[in-house]
Sequence to fold (296 residues):
Amino acid sequence: MKPTLLVLAAGMGSRYGGLKQMDAVGPNGEIIMDYSIADAIKAGFGKVVFVIRHSFEQEFKSTINADHFGGKIAVEYVFQELDSLPQGFCVPEGREKPWGTNHAIMMAANAIHEPFAIINADDFYGGDAFRVMANHLRTLDGTTGQYCMVGYRLENTLSENGTVSRGVCQVDEHSHLVGMTERTAIERTPQGIVYHDADGSAHELQPDATVSMNLFGFTPDYFEQSARLFVEFLKEHGNELKSEFYIPSAVNALIGSGYATMTVLHTTASWFGVTYKEDRPSVVARLKELHEQGVY
Fold:
């Protein structure tokens, strides 16, 4: 069994102002997504499914396709749109914001029938993270309710150019996720790593705290569970213009109900991305170094 990689790319058009402006950060013009797919191929993923929007479908497909990856992995596309809603629900007038990351996952229900991992399109996760995830997903074939995620050391996910938000994970003695707490305005200070409350007060976080960077692993039953939870979400928040159905919310609900467990896998990899425009030079430098070391 080869697991599938699901890439959440529906927001790329708005982030980049048009796909032709996807940021080339590698020494040969590579975008960050190229590294994720290369790492997934090395780790043994058999297919990649991209969640995109119809508005940039042709442009995306002309650039990101099986030929682009040397024919080494199967490629499919699914679409996330505002009106991708269950029967009986409609988009509230004035809403422009997508329905969130877990809604994006749901769009792949008819394309994925095996254990799968999900990633953000424009984050760099590192080869070890894909190896760890693929190895665990292979053990989940035929199971239900046994999910997983790759947890990163907090200190390996920070920006030197501003604060970040991270989902800080509570993990039990069996390496199972108990819950995720969103911490905002996290930064490295001379006194250590801290986060700030809404009132501005600072609280310390340990450098080795486990955080989520949206690298999750699921089995296909997650689609059915998500559809059920999305209906509940829409009943409560469907008329709001900016509410979003996030992955951590769905995961916390399934863990809390006793339906699922989520094993937290650990990686030596460092996450990075262009959170701030000032991050770009360091991303370019780190990728250049990886090329010089022969990793890519």
The helical segments are 12-16, 32-43, 57-63, 101-106, 127-138, 221-237, 247-256, 280-292. Residues 83 and 91 are 6 Å apart (CA to CA). The chain has a mean pLDDT of 93.
